[in-house]
Amino acid sequence: MTGSRYMIVKGGSPAIHKLGDIRREEDELIIVKSETEDHFIGNFVEGFGFMEVKYQKSDCRPLLPSEIEKLNNSRIGLGGIIYKLQVDSEGYPIQTDEKERQ
């Protein structure tokens, strides 16, 4: 895998962090930063910011076209700055310099 990639982890699937299993009951958007033979490693896009969470590859799937469209029409707020999120057809982020201050 080259670079970060957005994916969906199936609701109820293990999400293993050093503090334990932090699974979510609903399907959730994750960002994958690396991988092993059996796991994707990353974090939930929304939540408390737990990093280095392991998700079984068999519990993850690529984004659907409708999910890509929704992401590409959304914005994320971080530290008073709003970022426009753009991903390609495989879920890889597209660099954009579009920012707005709140």
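(ticket continues) Second input and output from the same batch:
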Amino acid sequence: MPTPAPQTLAAFTVVLQLDAQGRVVRTWREGEEAVARCVDAGFAGKTLFVPPKAPFYAAFEFQVEP
């Protein structure tokens, strides 16, 4: 998070593709602010949960309000 924190942050979305073991194998992002890039990078290579089928796609929408 930038210091000092900005008054508002633009909304952004990160989409993940999980493999059969629940590992994030690909991400897509809508939003180019530093926070969006940081969250996107934070998901890369992580294991979240074993999905019911693979490939499995999940989208996370972030909207920050003061």
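Agent notes: The chain has a mean pLDDT of 89. Strands lie at 12-18, 24-30, 56-62. Closing as not reproducible unless the customer responds.
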